[in-house]
Design goal:
The structure holds 3 protein chains of 3 kinds. Chain A is mainly α. Chain A has helices spanning 9-25, 46-72, 77-98. Chain A has a domain at 46-101. The relative contact order of chain A is 0.10. Chain B has one domain (2-261). Chain B is built from 9 helices and no strands. In chain B, helix 3 packs across helix 4 (60-80), helix 3 packs across helix 5 (84-104) and helix 4 crosses helix 5. Chain C has a domain at 149-193. Chain C has 3 helices and no strands. In chain C, helix 2 packs antiparallel against helix 3 (179-193). Classes of the chains: A mainly alpha, B mainly alpha, C mainly alpha. Chains B and C meet through helix 3, helix 4, helix 5, helix 6 and helix 7 of B and helix 1 and helix 2 of C.
Chain lengths: 112, 263, 195
């Protein structure tokens, strides 16, 4: 523990650096830069996710439309309407998936 | 047998059976549930044995347990923020439940059922849409409860972004609601489809091996082809197993982030 | 990261391929979608029970253990680092004290040397001054003595000159000259010679 006194200044400096680095690692000292990176970093299988997002939005929309039709006896109309809305929701899902990688173009920012 | 040899029964492997003999049959306990229990016990054992030495310099098992803990913990904190610590046990359970389902299904074991044709793989409970959808529904219910608890009725502004023109409300609100409800669907379909696809591929190529081997010496030699494919596929599926569990957990974290911070 | 993306894309291809396989298997249908089978629903009930049990066991029992170990290590390392830091600070302080002590010792030695030199110089100067004074004194005394002797000698010279003049005048004239006139003449003559 007791440092060998009379060590060169470079050795001393490196000890200081190492000590403060170790303290930073332990969270005892404030880390110098806040770690960046938003939610969901890389393009983690964007291809697969685009397909799944579109399909699942359509599935939900068709289910709602079909159920509403049966409930309100408006057989084909609400289903057709909700298929359109589902497509829009799918696009919105996909847009939200892609958007964080780019600066917000529209005013309507997704998350964050 | 002969009829089976000429058609590829790629889906038989997903058929549910009761496990644990008459006792399991009496309470409809399936082999899927048996593998859930096995997976859960494995995780618990790993953590228990890993935490027991309490060593400052960890051994292998302790390092594994601590790495698992740290991995999920930092995922929670990174994605959700400081509030993420509250959800850490849930995310951990979810991640390892899915991971175990994905991984254990890849074990070339046939201990518990012998019903289907081809390689005897252990049962992949994450290949059942009922299971993945239940998990995803649980996630979305939890997310909604969290959002309602933190933000109250203010939560419903989530379905109508502040800057949007009022005239578009009849369009935007249903779209946003559908988008919100599609989360559990996409979450469950993604996992389900990945698992099913992998296991169908295994089954298809394994069937090729058997069929070619049945066609004489040349066929037996040529069967090395699909065998090599299955070996490569196993490596790929190990990656997918981990990746899909990770995606499931991290999307849950992102949804929780949205619920905690609203947008 | 790129290989992961590529793998995922391949996964998509697999999904499409497998859906083609499902289409081929339409006659039997997917066991996953066979909701007529009571096991499809019962597995969900068991799933709920097992998941809840796993959650409770993990959150109440297993995870706190691992968390405690991690916390213990973090505390231990933090403590060690604190010890290292205080030791480092102590060492730095000791070094600083040492250099300060060395510096004051050097300074005091320097001051002492300077004082001694100054004192020696002062003493030497004082000695030289007394010596000078004594020399001046004796010089002055000698001069005084020389002056007295000269004055005495000059006085004797006048007497001798007066006597000689009186004798010379008495011999030449036979009559003793006026003493006052001789004295005057001798005085004038001496004065003319510079004395």
């Amino acid at each position: 523990m007791s440092g060998t006194q009379g060590g060169g200044s470079s050795e001393k400096k490196s000890f200081d650096e190492r000590l403060s680095a170790a303290r930073r690692r332990q969270g005892l000292e404030a880390p110098p830069p806040p770690p960046g990176g938003g939610p969901q970093g890389n393009a983690l299988g964007v291809g697969l996710r685009v397909g799944v997002e579109m399909v699942s939005a359509l599935v939900v929309a068709v289910a709602i439309g079909w159920w509403l039709d049966r409930w309100l006896h408006t057989k084909p109309f609400l289903l057709a309407l909700f298929v359109l809305l589902g497509g829009a929701a799918g696009v919105a899902n996909v847009w939200r998936l892609i958007a964080p990688a780019r600066p917000p173009e529209k005013e309507r920012g997704g998350r964050d | 047998m002969a009829a089976e040899a000429h058609t590829i029964d790629a889906l038989g492997q997903f058929k549910l059976e009761t496990a644990l003999g008459p006792l399991g049959a009496s309470v409809n306990f399936t082999q899927a549930n048996l593998w859930m229990v096995i997976g859960g016990l494995l995780v618990l054992t790993m953590l228990y044995l890993g935490a027991r030495p309490r060593a400052v310099v960890p051994g292998r098992l302790q390092a594994l347990a601590e790495m698992s803990y740290d991995f999920v913990h930092s995922m929670c904190v990174d994605q959700i923020g400081e509030e993420g610590k509250r959800f850490f046990p849930f995310i951990f359970t979810l991640f390892f439940f899915v991971l175990m389902g994905n991984l254990l299904g890849l074990l070339p074991l046939n201990f518990f059922y012998t019903d289907h044709f081809g390689v005897g793989l252990a049962f992949t409970y994450t290949s059942h849409i009922a299971v993945t959808f239940s998990l995803a529904a649980l996630v979305i219910v939890l997310v909604t409860i969290v959002a309602l608890r933190i933000h109250g009725l203010h939560f419903f502004t989530y379905f109508f972004p502040a800057g949007a023109p009022k005239l578009l409300a009849p369009l935007i609100i249903p779209v946003e609601i559908i988008s919100y409800l599609s989360r559990p669907v996409s979450l469950s379909i993604r996992l389900f489809a990945n698992m099913v696809a992998g296991h169908v591929m295994f089954e298809v190529f394994a069937s090729f091996i058997v069929m070619m081997a049945a066609a004489g010496t040349i066929g037996t030699v040529a069967a090395v082809g699909p065998l090599a494919v299955n070996v490569a596929l196993m490596g790929f599926e190990l990656l997918v197993a981990f990746l899909q569990a990770y995606v499931f957990a991290i999307l849950t974290c992102i949804y929780l982030h949205d619920a905690v911070h609203l947008h | 990261m790129r290989p992961i993306a590529r793998f995922a894309t391949t996964g998509l291809a697999f999904t499409l391929l497998s859906s083609a396989a499902f289409a081929a298997e339409k006659k039997e249908g997917m066991p996953q979608l066979d909701f007529a089978n009571p096991l499809t629903i019962s597995q969900v009930v068991w799933l709920a029970l097992i998941f809840i049990a796993l959650y409770l066991l993990l959150s109440r029992w297993a995870l706190p253990q691992v968390g405690a170990v991690l916390e213990m290590r973090a505390a231990r390392i933090g403590e060690d680092l604190d010890v290292a830091r205080t030791a480092k600070a102590g060492a730095d302080k000791a070094v600083a004290e040492l250099t300060a002590a060395t510096r004051t010792a050097q300074a005091s030695a320097q001051a002492e040397i300077a004082g001694a030199v100054a004192k020696a110089k002062q003493e030497a100067a004082a000695e030289a001054a007394t010596l000078n004074a004594r020399l001046d004194e004796s010089l002055a005394a000698a001069e005084q003595r020389i002056g007295a002797a000269r004055t005495a000698a000059l006085g004797a010279l006048r007497q001798v000159a007066t006597d000689t003049a009186t004798a010379v005048v008495a011999r030449l004239t036979g009559a003793a000259p006026d003493a006052a006139a001789v004295d005057r003449a001798v005085g004038a003559s001496l004065a003319a010679r510079g004395q």
